[in-house]
Write a structure and sequence with these properties.
This protein is an alpha/beta fold. 34% of the residues lie in helices and 19% in strands. Strands 3-4-5-6-9-10-11-12-13-14 form a 10-stranded mixed beta sheet, covered by helices on one side. A two-stranded antiparallel sheet has the order 1-2. A two-stranded antiparallel ribbon has the order 7-8. Helix 7 links the parallel strand 10 and strand 11. The two termini are 33 Å apart. It binds iron/sulfur cluster.
Length: 340
């Protein structure tokens, strides 16, 4: 019989840590010092935590592990400066994250799952199927590796491999740990979580205290076409997703970002821009237009992309044309396949 591994202390939010200390018969007030020591690297060999009584360290040591964070196995650098990092987590589970240089800032794009169960037909991650959801610690490891690459990070997006709202407990835990003032203190307002439209979690986010930003992958405005490209349409139809998004924006006085990948000849016709404008025109936010990058190689911007953008602008929709990044190392949107 194998002994189950102890849970990793790094994967606990400060609240969970306080509850764990109570359960171990220790004062929950030690949680602050423990959290600081764990997330700001104030640990000594043998498990000693800076400013934490040895008795508390010993109690934690019996219930939790504290291993070094996993580090990337491979690093690729694009000619445009985009960096892609490949991890092999426990059991050889692959996942990738990306550091994207934008105009005057650096963005980390993290994965929430290894592979994805959503099966979007245009997506290299979807073609892998779901291997497994990542733990909060595995998400933190990606953040730390991106930070090491970048030196400083201005924002982070959960737009890598996987559907973050299908691993929401761990993604939320990672968000709480990263934004904790005793941890990295990375502002929630600089984090964006992108979903293909998991309505129950959009509703949970609407009612929560989290300040993260919401992005929704539209894929196609036409229902049948969307169902062909993104099978999740059958479970969570776009029109119902948009109702949830309207409620989110109204309740939180927040903007939403719509992601729209332009597939030449498929969803980039004038009828598509007109339908898209009708569907999202009244929702506060903007549409990010992304030229399609096929999994096999670079695609990129066609003249139609600019025309589509103009059609939306004329219809009163705020748009942003996302510049192509990292296509030469398969790090662009929809290309992450963890070396498969
Ligand atoms: S586009 Fe997103 S939700 Fe769809 S298969 Fe790819 S990773 Fe999953």
């Amino acid at each position: 019989m194998t002994t189950p591994a102890l849970p990793d202390l790094r994967g606990l939010t400060r609240l969970e840590l306080a509850a764990a200390l109570s359960a171990l018969g220790e004062k929950p007030s030690h949680a602050e010092a423990v959290f600081l020591a764990v997330h700001r690297g104030k640990t000594a060999p043998g498990g000693a935590l800076w400013n934490v009584p040895p008795r508390v360290c010993a109690a934690l040591d019996k219930a939790f592990s504290l291993s070094p964070l996993p580090v990337p196995e491979r690093r690729q650098v694009s000619k445009d400066g985009t960096k892609k990092l490949l991890f092999r987590f426990t059991g050889g589970t692959p996942a990738e994250c990306v550091v994207l240089p934008a105009k005057d800032r650096l963005v980390a794009c993290l994965s929430s799952q290894s592979g994805c169960s959503c099966g979007c037909t245009f997506c290299a991650t979807g073609a892998l199927g779901l291997k497994r959801s990542l733990t909060a610690v595995e998400i933190l490891a990606q953040f730390e590796a991106c930070l090491k690459e970048a030196g400083t990070l201005n924002s982070l997006v959960f737009m890598g491999m996987g559907e973050p709202f299908l691993n929401w407990e761990n993604v939320k835990r990672a968000i709480l740990i990263l934004s904790d003032s005793r941890g990295r203190h990375f502002p929630q307002a600089k984090m964006t979580v992108s979903t293909v439209g998991v309505i129950p979690v959009i509703e949970e986010l609407t009612a929560s205290d989290l300040r993260v930003r919401l992005a929704v992958s539209v894929v196609a405005a036409d229902e049948e076409q969307r169902a062909r490209l993104a099978p999740m349409e059958k479970l969570y139809p776009l029109r119902r997703v948009l109702e949830a998004v309207r409620a989110y924006c109204a309740a939180r006085k927040a903007l939403v970002m719509f992601e729209y990948i332009l597939f030449p000849g498929v969803n980039d016709r004038p009828a598509d821009s007109a339908l898209l404008a009708r569907l999202v025109g009244d929702i506060p936010g903007r549409v990010n237009l992304i030229p399609y990058n096929p999994p096999g190689g670079p695609g990129g911007e066609t003249p139609r992309v600019k025309e589509f953008q103009l059609e939306l602008i004329r219809a009163g929709v705020r748009t942003y044309l996302r510049p192509e990044k990292g296509a030469d190392i398969a790090a662009a949107c929809g290309q992450l396949a963890a070396g498969a």
